[in-house]
C-alpha cells in the first residue's frame, strides 16, 4: 500500500467517530486480539437440532470449558460430548461438537460449532453459558460473514451470493445465488480488473520511461486493443435485460384490464387464496394488491390493479392512476378482457388491448399475455373464433380462461412461464448475470471511464491513465478488492526499465 494511505483514510474520519475506531481496530489489531463472537446460526424457534457457532481466538477455550475436556476434538470431525455450564457444572445437553481451527474455517479464524437439541431452554442455556465466558460476546448481524470477507475467505460478490442463497425461495433463485456464491461473478469482475490493472501499468510505465527507449514497441496499441475489448465485454454484460436483477427480486407481473373483467378473481385463482375482494360491483378494487408467487421456478410479484375506465369518483380515479403507473413499471402484463364483451375480430381485440397497455408503447414491445376470461359464459364455437382472431392480428399470446371453473389456468401458466423463461433465462447457462443495482451502477461508471480513456489518450496520456484508474476502482468496489501495489507489481514484472 502507498505510504501514508491509511493515514489519509483516517484523516477523513472524525477522531472520535465509531468508524475511525473500527478502521484502526481492523487494521492494527492482530487476529489474536479480536473478540470471539457467538450466535445461533440455525433458525429461531423449536426445532430438532440447533447449531450454535463461535469464531475468534477464544473459540478453543470456550469449547474446552463447555465440554469439560482439555483435549479438543480432531479438526473438522464430529464428536459427541456432554455440554455443561462452566459456572455451575450443570449439564445443559448432550450434543455434537465440531472444531474448525483457523485459517481452514468459514471465517478464517478458530471456529467451533455446537449441535444441540433445538428447544428454547437448551439453546438459551448454551447461549447464556457462552456469554458468561471471558472474551466472548454475541455476534452482530452478519458478523461471521463480515469476518470471512475481512480475512479473504469471501469476496463481496460471494458474500452477496450467500445472502441471496439464504433468502432464495425458488429453484431459479437458488441456482443463480449458488453460482454467484461459488465465485463465478466475482471471477469475471476480477479478470476484468486484472486486465485493467495491466493496461494501467503499461500506460504509466510509458509515461514514466518512454524517453529511456527501454520499452517495447507498440505498448500503447496493445493497451488500446485491450481497453476496446474490455469495453465491449462490459457493455454486453450490462445489456442483459436485467435478467439477474429480475430473478433476484422477482419479475413484476401486473394484472390489468377494464372493470369487471375478472382481474381480482384471476389473482385469487393464481394465489390459491382470497387475496383480493371479488364483487360484481364495478370498481371494487381501488388500490394495488400484491402477492409473491413461484411460477415454474421463477419468482413473481403479482399485482392486481384497479379497473381502467373514466370515472368521477376521486378515490377510484386515484386507483386508476396507480394502475397506470404500475403498468409503466411492469415486466409482464396480464391483459384481462371479458371474453363475452369483445368481438372475435383482430381489430376489436387490438383496440381493447391498446386501451390497457401503456400509451405510446407498441404492443409488441411489452411482454404480455392476453387473458380472455369468463370463457364459461361463451356460446359454443365463439372461443375458437376469439383465439383465431388473436392469431390473425399479430396479437400477444392469448388463452381462454374461466376463473369460476379453473378451465384454461394450465394454458395461462404455460404462456406466463414461457415469458418468464425468456425474460430471466437459465441462471446456469452462459456468462453469470449481474444481480445487484450497485453492480450496474459501478459497471456503468466503469464503462463511462473506459469511453473517456479513448477521448483523452490523444490529448493527455496522464488524464487517460486516470480514467483507467477510475474504471479499475469501480470494478474494485464491486469485488471489494482495490490495491495500488498491484500496478507496481506489473510494472516491474512486465517491463525491464533499467537494463
Low-confidence stretches: 1-32, 484-499
DSSP strand count: 12
Count of DSSP H/I helices? 18
Q: Tell me about the biggest sheet?
A: 6 strands, mixed
Order of helices and strands: HHEEHEEEHEHHHHHHEHEEHEHEHEHHHH
DSSP strand content: 15-25%
Radius of gyration: 30 Å
- How would the global form be characterised? flat
- Secondary-structure-based class equals alpha/beta
Strand sequence of the main sheet, in spatial order? 3-4-5-2-1-6
* Proportion of helical residues: 40-55%
Mean pLDDT: 85
How far apart the termini lie comes to 27 Å
Show the helix and strand layout.
Layout (H helix, E strand, L loop, with lengths): L4 H7 L6 H11 L7 E5 L6 E9 L3 H9 L11 E6 L6 E10 L10 E8 L1 H12 L4 E3 L4 H8 L5 H12 L3 H11 L2 H26 L9 H20 L4 H7 L1 E6 L6 H9 L17 E7 L2 E7 L9 H15 L3 E7 L7 H9 L13 E6 L8 H11 L5 E3 L8 H16 L12 H20 L4 H19 L5 H10 L5
Parallel strand pairs: 1-6, 7-9, 7-10, 10-11, 11-12
Antiparallel strand pairs: 1-2, 2-5, 3-4, 4-5, 8-9
How does this structure look, described?
It is flat, with a radius of gyration of 30 Å. The protein has 499 residues and is of the alpha/beta class. It has a 6-stranded mixed β-sheet. A 6-stranded mixed β-sheet has the order 8-9-7-10-11-12, with helices on both faces. The relative contact order is 0.10. 46% of the residues lie in helices and 15% in strands. It has 18 helices and 12 strands.
Amino acid at each position: 500500500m502507498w505510504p501514508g494511505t491509511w493515514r489519509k483514510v483516517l484523516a477523513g474520519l472524525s477522531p472520535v467517530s465509531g468508524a475511525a475506531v473500527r478502521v484502526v481496530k481492523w487494521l492494527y489489531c492482530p487476529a489474536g486480539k479480536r473478540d470471539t463472537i457467538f450466535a445461533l446460526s440455525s433458525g429461531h424457534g423449536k426445532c430438532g437440532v440447533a447449531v450454535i457457532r463461535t469464531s475468534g481466538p477464544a473459540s478453543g477455550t470456550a469449547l474446552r470449558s463447555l465440554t469439560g475436556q482439555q483435549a479438543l476434538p480432531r479438526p473438522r470431525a464430529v464428536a459427541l460430548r456432554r455440554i455443561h455450564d462452566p459456572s455451575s457444572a450443570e449439564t445443559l445437553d448432550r450434543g455434537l461438537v465440531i472444531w474448525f481451527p483457523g485459517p481452514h474455517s468459514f471465517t478464517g479464524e478458530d471456529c467451533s460449532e455446537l449441535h444441540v437439541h433445538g428447544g428454547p431452554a437448551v439453546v438459551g442455556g448454551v447461549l447464556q453459558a457462552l456469554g458468561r465466558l471471558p472474551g466472548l460476546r454475541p455476534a452482530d448481524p452478519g458478523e461471521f460473514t463480515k469476518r470471512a470477507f475481512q480475512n479473504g475467505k469471501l469476496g463481496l460478490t460471494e458474500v452477496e451470493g450467500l445472502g441471496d442463497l439464504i433468502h432464495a425461495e425458488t429453484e431459479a433463485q437458488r441456482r443463480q445465488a449458488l453460482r454467484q456464491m461459488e465465485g463465478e461473478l466475482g471471477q469475471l469482475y476480477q479478470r476484468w480488473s486484472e486486465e485493467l490493472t495491466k493496461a494501467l501499468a503499461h500506460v504509466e510505465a510509458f509515461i514514466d520511461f518512454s524517453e529511456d527507449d527501454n520499452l517495447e514497441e507498440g505498448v500503447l496499441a496493445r493497451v488500446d486493443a485491450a481497453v476496446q475489448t474490455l469495453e465491449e465485454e462490459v457493455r454486453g454484460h450490462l445489456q442483459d435485460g436485467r435478467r439477474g436483477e429480475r430473478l433476484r427480486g422477482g419479475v413484476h407481473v401486473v394484472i390489468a384490464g377494464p372493470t369487471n373483467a375478472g382481474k381480482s378473481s384471476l389473482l385469487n385463482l393464481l394465489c390459491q387464496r382470497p387475496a383480493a375482494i371479488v364483487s360484481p360491483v364495478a370498481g371494487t378494487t381501488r388500490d394495488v394488491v400484491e402477492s409473491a408467487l413461484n411460477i415454474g421456478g421463477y419468482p413473481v410479484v403479482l399485482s392486481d390493479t384497479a379497473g381502467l375506465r373514466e370515472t368521477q369518483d376521486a378515490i377510484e380515479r386515484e386507483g386508476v392512476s396507480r394502475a397506470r403507473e404500475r403498468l409503466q413499471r411492469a415486466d409482464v402484463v396480464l391483459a384481462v378482457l371479458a371474453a363475452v364483451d369483445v368481438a372475435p375480430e383482430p381489430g376489436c381485440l387490438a383496440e381493447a388491448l391498446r386501451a390497457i397497455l401503456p400509451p405510446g408503447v407498441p404492443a409488441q414491445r411489452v411482454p404480455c399475455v392476453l387473458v380472455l376470461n369468463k370463457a364459461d359464459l361463451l356460446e359454443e364455437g365463439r372461443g375458437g373464433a376469439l383465439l383465431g382472431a388473436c392469431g390473425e392480428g399479430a396479437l400477444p399470446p392469448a388463452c381462454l380462461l374461466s376463473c369460476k371453473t379453473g378451465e384454461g389456468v394450465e394454458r395461462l401458466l404455460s404462456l406466463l412461464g414461457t415469458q418468464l423463461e425468456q425474460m430471466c433465462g437459465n441462471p446456469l447457462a452462459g456468462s453469470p448475470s449481474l444481480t445487484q443495482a450497485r453492480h450496474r451502477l459501478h459497471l456503468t461508471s466503469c464503462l463511462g471511464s473506459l469511453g473517456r480513456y479513448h477521448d483523452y489518450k490523444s490529448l493527455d496520456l496522464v488524464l487517460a491513465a486516470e480514467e483507467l484508474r477510475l474504471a479499475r476502482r469501480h470494478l474494485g468496489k464491486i469485488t471489494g478488492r482495490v490495491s495500488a501495489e498491484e500496478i507496481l507489481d506489473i510494472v516491474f514484472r512486465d517491463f525491464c526499465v533499467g537494463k
